[in-house]
Amino acid sequence: xxxxxxxxxxxxxxxDSAPFKMTIGGEEHIIGEGExxxxxxxxxxxxxxDLLVSTSLALGEAYMNKDIEIEGDLYEVLENFLSQxxxxxxxxxxxxxxxxxxxxxKNQQKEVSSHYDIGNDFYKxxxxxTMSYSCGYFKTENDSLKDAQYNKVDRILEKLLLKEGMTxxxxxxxxxxxxxxxxxxxxxxxxxxxxxKEQKKKFEExxxxxxxxxxxxxxxxxYRDLPKKGIQFDRVVSVGMVEHVGRDNYELFMSSMxxxxxxxxxxxxxxxxxxxxxPGDPWVKKYIFPGGVVPSIREIESIACELKLYTLDVESLxxxxxxxxxxxxxxxxxxxxxxxEMFGDTFARMWELYLCACAATFKNGIxxxxxxxxxxxxxxxxPMTRWY
Length: 388
What we know:
By secondary structure, this protein is of the alpha/beta class. It has helices at 3-12, 48-53, 55-64, 74-81, 96-99, 105-116, 120-126, 145-159, 177-186, 197-209, 250-259, 282-287, 297-306, 318-334, 336-343, 345-363; strands at residues 20-24, 27-31, 39-42, 68-71, 167-171, 189-194, 216-220, 233-239, 261-273, 309-316, 368-376. Strand 1 (20-24) and strand 2 form a beta hairpin. The longest helix is centred in the C-terminal third of the chain and has 19 residues, at 345-363. It is elongated and about 70 Å long.
């Protein structure tokens, strides 16, 4: 073996909680004790220097480029490997420009577009027909992905205690499924905002298809501009959007929600969460979600308390998100050839790594998913129990 290969093997030996076979330099090595659970073949060896700057970035890029190939189920491999993320290295100083990006409106618009404007045709391949790109809610083991997305939206709308004629604002409305369901079932008046031109276009098409022009509208808008409109809503909801605003903007985001919410109104925040504050994973920030940062519950709750946003309910959907991601990956694999035709094999490997890695990190509790229901000030008119 070369010196680079020996250094790499030595670095990888610390990831020994799940035994696996590594083939490097034409030689086979068993890392960990016991029967190997999976096999890894090294075609081009990452340098230890790169691994120390960012283990996830070095290994992630190596997988994308086929420098590393895996024999076995990618999700199962990552579930075992990512349970040892405390052994990963990250040099935040060297990665400063990647990890800490600008929080300006212009840059955040660019970052959101880089992910969500890949194209509606791409997302149609592996999302369900509701075009819901967030955690589903599986009531039973037999629920399909579509069932789970309907369940999720129903659960959110029930928590918001909607009534006919109420106004509802969806911050980061995606392709509009939640607002469409709210308008059809509760006859509310809804506004959705998004930074994605592709999502806005599709949502507008769906509004016309459902004949909901009198109930719903969608605007290409930054959340920071909403308070300037001088409109207040009975209810506000945000699903999977606060992760894009940046840690230094959490207080601004929550304050904006309070300003657009009527006194006593309800705000449901659905977001990926973490136990501890972290600037985020370098590979994810470079290739998947530029600028994305996962909040901890305590920092969101701390801000809410100062704003007199009262916490009414907190629910974890962590395992539901892991299952949702596995459903997405199954759909993705069924259409992988089409993805390769659209964007190439490197993109396809990047995307399957993202879906499987996220499923694994949710399964391991590295990240979580929470729904928090707030009221703007004290609301004594709600039902006494959480089961309404």
